[in-house]
């Protein structure tokens, strides 16, 4: 056990760094985060240090002859990091679109019921919706581009449809609240279209697939990219979104039917991320679209979808 004189000598050789970084002796303890950051600063500047735990908390000590240097380096560090990380961005006004999103998902379900009926249209009796609308890789590359979109509206069964409606509804509703229904849904449609196109290039010519899950994966990528870009300085505080996205992806992979295509899903997700990065930058710089612009985009998207099915029925 060290005697009293030894302790006195030791305390003369080492001085406590005061949390206020003013010269002088202090007994006020440091917080654990401050202790960790300051010790890393001192270590990077090759200033010896040691930490001691007193009855009141942790204290950081340096040799007496390096006390002034240590305080100077730490003051410089605190000045440079005074406003870091930046404050959270001001939340954008959310656009209520739950009703619109629900109606779109209902329409998707009603169309699935329609495809199960024996109908006569444009010389088809009955209409084989799956034959004329699936994402047939060979036919897409031969010019039947409308299949990139019509395939997104077809489902192999109730479980496949329900999975896309439930999981897709969560992410798409969140996306549209942020961007507006017109821009949100058009980007979801675009990511699904691009996902099917990329898949057609890498698959064999006889490859076929159907399902809105390619577009739903795109919505997950869009939402993740936009939020991670917006909160890039605060990702540790925004951990819930990546976790939710991962769970959504897992759910989609788990409910796929025999006609679903994992490759198309992953391509949709990747294009969603790319479109989300571009959209996040443009919205951050120029602001959100007006209600009029969103309504115009909705009409363009609906007309594009109807045109694709008209072309499919007449091909």
Protein described:
Helix 4 (98-115) packs antiparallel against helix 8 (158-179), helix 8 (158-179) packs antiparallel against helix 11 and helix 9 runs parallel beside helix 13. Mean pLDDT is 81; it is low at 1-11. The chain has helices at residues 4-13, 32-44, 67-80, 98-115, 129-133, 137-141, 147-150, 158-179, 181-202, 213-230, 240-255, 262-286, 291-314, and strands spanning 14-16, 50-54, 57-63. The longest helix is centred in the last third of the chain and has 25 residues, at 262-286. It has 315 residues and is mainly alpha-helical. It is elongated and about 95 Å long. It has a 3-stranded antiparallel sheet.
Can you summarize this structure?
The protein is mostly helical.
Give the topology.
Blueprint: H1 4-13, E1 14-16, H2 32-44, E2 50-54, E3 57-63, H3 67-80, H4 98-115, H5 129-133, H6 137-141, H7 147-150, H8 158-179, H9 181-202, H10 213-230, H11 240-255, H12 262-286, H13 291-314
Antiparallel strand pairs: 1-3, 2-3
Helix pairs in contact: 4-8, 8-9, 8-10, 8-11, 9-10, 9-12, 9-13, 10-11, 10-12
């Amino acid at each position: 056990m060290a005697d009293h004189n030894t302790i006195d000598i030791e305390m003369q050789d080492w001085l406590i760094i005061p949390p206020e970084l003013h010269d002088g002796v202090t007994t006020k303890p440091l917080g654990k985060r401050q202790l960790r950051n300051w010790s890393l600063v001192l270590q990077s500047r090759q200033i010896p240090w040691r930490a001691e735990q007193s009855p009141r908390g942790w204290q950081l000590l340096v040799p007496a002859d390096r006390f002034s240097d240590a305080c100077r380096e730490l003051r410089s560090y605190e000045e440079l990091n005074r406003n870091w990380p930046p404050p959270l961005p001001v939340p954008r006004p959310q656009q209520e679109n739950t009703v619109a999103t629900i109606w779109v998902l209902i329409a998707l379900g009603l169309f699935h019921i329609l495809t199960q009926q024996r109908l006569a249209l444009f010389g088809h009796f009955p209409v084989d919706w799956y034959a004329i609308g699936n994402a047939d890789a060979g036919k897409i590359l031969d010019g039947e581009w409308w299949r990139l979109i019509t395939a997104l509206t077809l489902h192999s069964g109730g479980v496949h449809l329900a999975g896309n409606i439930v999981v897709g509804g969560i992410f798409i509703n969140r996306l549209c609240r942020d961007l507006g229904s017109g821009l949100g849904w058009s980007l979801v449609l675009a990511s699904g279209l691009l996902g099917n196109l990329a898949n057609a290039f890498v698959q064999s010519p006889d490859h076929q697939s159907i399902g809105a899950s390619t577009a739903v994966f795109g919505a997950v990528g869009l939402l993740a990219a936009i939020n991670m870009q917006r909160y890039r300085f605060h990702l540790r505080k925004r951990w819930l979104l990546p976790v939710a996205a991962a769970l959504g992806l897992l759910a989609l992979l788990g409910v796929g039917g025999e006609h679903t295509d994992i490759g198309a899903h992953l391509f949709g997700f990747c294009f969603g991320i790319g479109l989300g990065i571009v959209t996040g930058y443009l919205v951050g710089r120029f602001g959100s679209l007006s209600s009029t612009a969103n309504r115009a985009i909705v009409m363009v998207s609906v007309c594009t979808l109807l045109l694709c099915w008209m072309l499919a029925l007449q091909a």
